Amino acid sequence: MKRKLDANDVPSPKAAATEEELDFEALGLDPRLRQALIKEKFSKPTLVQSKAIPLALEGKDILARAKTGSGKTAAYVLPVLQGILQRKSNDPSLKATTGLILVPTRELAEQVQKVVTSFTSFCGKDVRSVNLTQKVSDAVQRSLLADFPDLVISTPTRVLANVNNSALSLEQLTHLVIDEADLVLSYGYDEDINALSKAIPRGVQTFLMSATLTSEVDTLKSLFCRSPVILKLEDKEEKGAGVSQFVVKCAEDEKFLLTYVIFKLQLVKGKVIIFVHDVDRCYRVKLFLEQFGIKSCVLNSELPINSRLHVVEEFNKGVYDIIIAADEQEIMGVPKPTKKSIEPADEDEMDQDKEEIGTSEDEDHEEASTSKKSRPEKRRKMTAKEKDYSISRGVDFQNVACVLNFDLPTTSKSYTHRIGRTGRAGKAGMALSFIVPSDMYGKHKPTSVSSAKHDETVLAKITKRQGKLGHEVRPYHFEMSQVEAFRYRMTDALRAVTRLAVQEARAREIRQELIKSEKLKRHFEENPEELRQLRHDGELRAARVQAHLKHVPEYLMPAKGRKGLSKEDIGYVGFKKTSENRIRKARDRNRAKGKGGRKPSGGKVDPLKTFNRGRK
Length: 616
Description:
Elements: H1 13-21, H2 31-39, H3 47-57, E1 62-65, H4 72-90, E2 99-102, H5 106-119, E3 129-131, H6 138-146, E4 151-154, H7 156-164, E5 175-178, H8 181-199, E6 205-210, H9 215-224, E7 229-232, E8 242-249, H10 254-264, E9 271-276, H11 279-290, E10 297-299, H12 305-317, E11 322-326, H13 328-332, H14 347-357, H15 361-371, H16 384-387, E12 400-405, H17 412-419, E13 428-435, H18 455-468, E14 473-475, H19 480-483, H20 487-496, H21 499-519, H22 521-526, H23 528-531, H24 582-593
Parallel strand pairs: 1-6, 1-7, 2-4, 2-5, 3-4, 5-6, 8-13, 8-14, 9-11, 9-12, 10-11, 12-13
Helix pairs in contact: 3-4, 4-5, 7-8, 8-9, 10-20, 11-21, 17-18
């Protein structure tokens, strides 16, 4: 990197300081941590890392707002590990839990644990960490905590349970981290957090990491922080990137029609997350896509935790292109945090929070319809399983080209969380949302969902909120006259996806995933290569499969090809390799003709497929 020169051709001190900030060597970390950073190919710290780590090493409390994917995890893990190593060097016999990382979901806990493991690869004997969200018995968990791990990673519920039964002691805690701080309270952990605030000793260095600064974050700040340094960071490199946001107004059944057209004709390329209203909707959309030979996998809280984690990992590796996710936090209505006398960090942000916290008549009706309660102000408490799970935030999806809101969320905040899955770390992305106008709601009962009744009201709030953030939500217009040619195929496919077929698919998927998750867990630990062959996007075949729907005849294509389906170019070239393997294609063609390739099992050849080998 070239330094800026002043009028006397001398490197300016500001430039030199900037260059030092962009080097991990200048941060003064333990050599073993620097060695691990080199192994993990961390060449230069990101903006949040270069700003937060020096302040953390000085012992200051930090409240950092930074975009998802900006490196927040390393920004707090490295200072915590540095503190543990320093205490161990001063007192090698020290055995106590000195670091605690709180996260809102099990999936995020697993990801943080992996980061900790990678950074302690050269000091594993000196730093022991435990993830309390693992699905193990209470006895096993107590035994793990009996050895006084240096660092504990968990959801607030699990930590409080172990503190109450005396399995975990926080008396010598020195570092507290609350990751995704804006979600911890809103996910229903408010009672657990208030109880933990009394168990955690005063004077503990605290890190609050969040993608947004909200009233929930201010509540946590008032509970745990002492005059924290507030970092509101935005990478200059990311200003040109971001999420292009589009909305399509359509009838209820046209959601399925447009989804079929988008994927079958590859109008959107790359990895896609489809958000739907509930678990049944997951399988309805999956079975619908199966009719056209479009593979997808589902992600919801009914699936075992091991399967969910594996699905996310394989999606990030590019094994799957389409995930259909049920955003169940939206279905149940997330319990709202207890209001406290706090000072908001930003008036605009407070306005956004009022939009969600101040309940209007529409929102009351919305909650009543989605949670099926007679009194909207009374929300049912989420179970521990539901608290530990959400798909819109807390899960690290990588290289997502498009977020498709098949069913619009019920709040603008949830919309922001959903679209945050794409356009990360300087990359561009796209969010496409289907909106059902009020005059079209309930017109097609088989595909109707209760949340769609308020789509226009929620869209107005989304547009307002995104406008305050400087983002535009633009309407997108399909050429419906061209799309109409595909309607009869959509109708044919939907007829096969009956309610009974959805229920059977749901039960079958859960049975299959339970087998994969539990009985084969030890086998896969001993044979990791076979785990790569385990797929979650296979056909469920609960619905009547119609082979002719898998191919699009030429007469259905518009005169202008794919471009004739829309008034503007929606195509986003993502991270999927679309070119075919010519050698493999030729081999398959020859094999079909009976020329070359491997013979069928038993060494026999079907004489009906080739006359050359059948004649003597």
